[in-house]
Amino acid sequence: MASEKVVETTGLLGWVDRRFPMTKMVKEHMTEYYAPKNFNFWYFFGSLAMLVLVIQILTGIFLVMHYKPDGNVAFASVEYIMREVPFGWVIRYMHSTGASMFFVVVYLHMLRGMLYGSYRKPRELVWIFGVAIFLCLMAEAFFGYLLPWGQMSYWGAQVIVNLFAAVPFVGEALSTWIRGDFVVSDATLNRFFAFHVIAIPLVLIGLIVAHIIALHEVGSNNPDGVEIKEKLDANGRPLDGIPFHPYYTVHDILGVAGFLLVFAAIMFFAPTMGGYFLEANNFIPADPYVTPPHIAPVWYFTPFYSMLRATTDEFTWALVAFCILFAIGLFFSKNTRGIWKIVWPVILIAVAVLLRVFDAKFWGVVVMGGTVVMLGFLPWLDKSPVKSIRYRPGWHKLLYAIFMINFIILGIIGTKAPSDLLNLTSQVATVIYLAFFFFMPIWSRLGTFKEVPERVTYKPH
Fold first, then answer.
1. What is the per-residue pLDDT across 250-297, written as a single tens digit (0 to 9) for each?
2. Domains held by the chain: number
C-alpha cells in the first residue's frame, strides 16, 4: 500500500483535533469510508431510521416539557399539548407518526438484510446489534404506549403486563414488579415514563453506536453479496467502493426528501391512519371499570400478538406431535451423524414433554418472544453458499415472498377480534413463520445457485 501524506489541520479545527479526533472520525466514517458503488433503493432505510430517531428524540423533549406522568392529569396534559400549547398538535402528531414510521423503516431495513444476506460472515455482530436495537425499539414503544393514559393505552398495558404472570414460579411477582402495583396504576405510569424517557433511549443510542462502529469495521454489504475489500487498488482503496461522503450523503438526501413527503402527508392529513397509528379508544380517558370490546396492540406489534393468541392448548398438542415426528425423522436421517443422531432427538422429545408441563399461556409468551429472538440466529441458520437473493434458486425467492406475505397476514389478524377462522389462520401462519427458520439449515443449501461475480455489478443511473 502506498503511503499517504498526513495533512494536519490548523486553526480552531486543528486545536480541536489535537484534543479530540474529530477530523479522524469524519474521515473514518464519512469521507474515507468506502461503500459499495451499487447501493440501491433498499439502502435508504438505514439512514431513514437515524432520521426518525432524531425526530423522536427532539419531539419527545418538547412533549416532556408539558406532559405530566400522573394518573390523574396525564390524559388532560396530552389534551393541553394538543389544544393549548402553540404548535403542540404538530409536535404530538410528529411523535405519534414517527413511532409508526420508525417501525416501517426498521422492518424494511431488516428485510433488506435478509434478502441480501447482510447477516452473513463477517457481519454477524452487526446483525445481532440490529436485532437488539429492534428489541429495544419494541420495549420503547411499549413503555410509551401507556403514557397518553387513554383507554387502549391502559388496557393494552394491562393485557401485556399480565402475560408475564404466565412465567412459571416467578410470574405473579414479576408482573407486580413491572406494574409497581397489583393493577396498572399511577405507579405503573411513572415507571413506564422513566423507562421510555431515560433508560431505554440510553441503551438504544448505545446499541446504535455499536451497530454503526461494527458495520464500518467490516464494511457494508451490497446487493451482490461481494466483499469489496478483497479487490483493492494500489492505494489500498476498494476498486468497487466510493467514499460515503459526498456520494451516499447526497444519495440519501433523495430518500430523506421522499420520506419526509410521505411523513408530512400522514401527519397533516391522516395522523390516525384509520385507527392504526392512533386508535379511537385512545382519545377516551383511561377507565379501569370499562373494558373496550376489543383490545389489540398497535399495528407493529400485531404479527407477534397473533402468534401469542395462536398458541392455544390444542396448538401445543400439534407442536408436541411435530417435535416427536421431527425427532424420529432426525434419528433415522442419513444426514444426522455421530452423537447428534441422539442429541437432537433427545432435545426435541424434552421440548415435547415441556410443552405439556407448562400451560399454553406460557408457551404463547415464549413463542411471541422467541420469534423475535430467533432473528438473531440467522447467521448460523442460513447455510446457503451465496449471500444475496440474486444468486439463489427461484424457489428460494418464492419462500421469502411467502414469508413476507405470511408476516403481513399475521399483522392483519392481530388487529381483528378473535374468531375460530382467524385463530386457525393465525395458527397456520405461525407454523409457516417457525418452519421458515427451523428448516432454514436444510432448505437454504438446496437448489441450483447462480455463479456470484468476482466484482459488483453496477449500472450508472
1. 999 999 999 999 999 999 999 999 989 999 999 999 999 998 888 888
2. 2
The per-residue pLDDT for 7 is 63
Q: What is the pLDDT of residue 182?
A: 87
Residue 211 assigned to a binding site? yes
245 is an annotated ligand-binding site residue = no
SS3 per-residue string spanning the chain: CCCCCCCCCCHHHHHHHCCCCHHHHHHHHHHCCEEECCCCHHHHHHHHHHHHHHHHHHHHHHHHCCCCCCCCCHHHHHHHHHHCCCCHHHHHHHHHHHHHHHHHHHHHHHHHHHHHCCCCCCCHHHHHHHHHHHHHHHHHHHHHHCCCCEHHHHHHHHHHHHHHHHCCCCHHHHHHHHHCCCCCCHHHHHHHHHHHHHHHHHHHHHHHHHHHHHHHHHCCCCCCCCCHHHCECCCCCECCEEEHHHHHHHHHHHHHHHHHHHHHHHHHHCCCHHHCCCCHHHHCECCCCCCCCCCCCCHHHHHHHHHHHHCCHHHHHHHHHHHHHHHHHHHHCCCCCCCHHHHHHHHHHHHHHHHHHCCHHHHHHHHHHHHHHHHHHHHHHCCCCCCCHHHCCHHHHHHHHHHHHHHHHHHHHHCCCCCHHHHHHHHHHHHHHHHHHHCHHHHCCCCCCCCCCCCCCCCCC
| 461 is annotated as contributing to ligand binding | no
Looking up residue 226, the CATH number of its domain turns out to be 1.20.810.10
Name the pTM for this structure.
0.92
Average pLDDT estimate for 431-437: 92
Same domain for 376 and 412, yes or no, is yes
Range of the domain at 316: 296-445
Domain final residue pick, 203, 238, 273: 273
